[in-house]
Amino acid sequence: MTDLKTTKRRAATPKPAAQKKPARKSPSVDNPGKVLKRSRYSKAEAYEIFQRFHADNPEPEGELDYVNAYTLLVAVVLSAQATDVGVNRATKTLFQIADTPEKMVALGEDRVREEIRTIGLFKTKAKNVVRLSEQLIRDHRGEVPDDREALEELPGVGRKTANVVLNIYFGHPTIAVDTHLFRLGNRIGIAPGKTPLDVEKAMEKAVPAEYGLHAHHWLILHGRYICKARKPECKRCVIYDLCRSTEKEQIDAIPELAERVAGWITAGKTRLDA
Ligand code: SF4
């Protein structure tokens, strides 16, 4: 005979709530997640990835405004934890008044601070801009050195900033690992690493020599506009069929742009002449 009390008790016991899967976090410098030991791509596959980026955008450009090596250096220093649009807005007037270290020193820290006050960390950045200008005048005759070590000795200039200046202004095939490159390297598994320096070294190995100069820009633009942190836009991705990311959106057919870009390569064309 069924024990009525037990049946009632069982019926009253609430079912455990279905466990919600925690949302997958994109790799970031603070939280790289599980890092692969090596790239997910063969040399030929990595080559095709950069060939696609090249076909789609043969002459990629950075988005910071500058008029010479010095203003580029200052703009990159100001861009830490700020958007390029925000930096351009702030430097529009600043670079009209001060486009050399001498003029910046003459302007003085208080005035520089006023000009850039819309940018995060503006107090520290104003101090660094004036101090680095003084150091350029003292140690480099007011010129921006084409040398990593010398650049990294300047106040507010770290490895990433030095890499950007060396790449954009001096034409070295350096890879500056910012938040976008760090995420991409780990997310798609082309240059996995726990730290920005690990990713930089892995990316240097992955990028074919002939694409070294523009790789940095392609990757930043791809991370900023397509393979975004929260929701990658896989449908617009030119490397969709090559991508081995576990975060890739599953789509029935290869996105049209990826197919077209692959077709341009076969036909020996680029987006410019497509
Ligand atoms: S397919 Fe998606 S996840 Fe892969 S690189 Fe493109 S946007 Fe990023």
UniProtKB/TrEMBL annotation:
InterPro entries: DNA_glycosylase, Endonuclease3_FeS-loop_motif, HhH-GPD_domain, HhH_base_excis_C, HhH_motif, Nth
Gene Ontology MF: a single term: endonuclease activity
Domain HhH-GPD intervals: 78-225
Pfam families: EndIII_4Fe-2S, HHH, HhH-GPD
Keywords: 4Fe-4S, DNA damage, DNA repair, DNA-binding, Endonuclease, Glycosidase, Hydrolase, Iron, Iron-sulfur, Lyase, Metal-binding, Nuclease
KW 4Fe-4S (keyword) present: yes
Needed cofactors: [4Fe-4S] cluster
Annotated cofactor note: Binds 1 [4Fe-4S] cluster.
Positions annotated to bind [4Fe-4S] cluster: 227, 234, 237, 243
KW Metal-binding (keyword) present: yes
UniProt-annotated stretches for the region Disordered: 1-37
SUPFAM superfamilies per the UniProt record, alphabetical: DNA-glycosylase
Physiological role: DNA repair enzyme that has both DNA N-glycosylase activity and AP-lyase activity. The DNA N-glycosylase activity releases various damaged pyrimidines from DNA by cleaving the N-glycosidic bond, leaving an AP (apurinic/apyrimidinic) site. The AP-lyase activity cleaves the phosphodiester bond 3' to the AP site by a beta-elimination, leaving a 3'-terminal unsaturated sugar and a product with a terminal 5'-phosphate.
Protein name: Endonuclease III
Organism the protein comes from: Roseibium algae
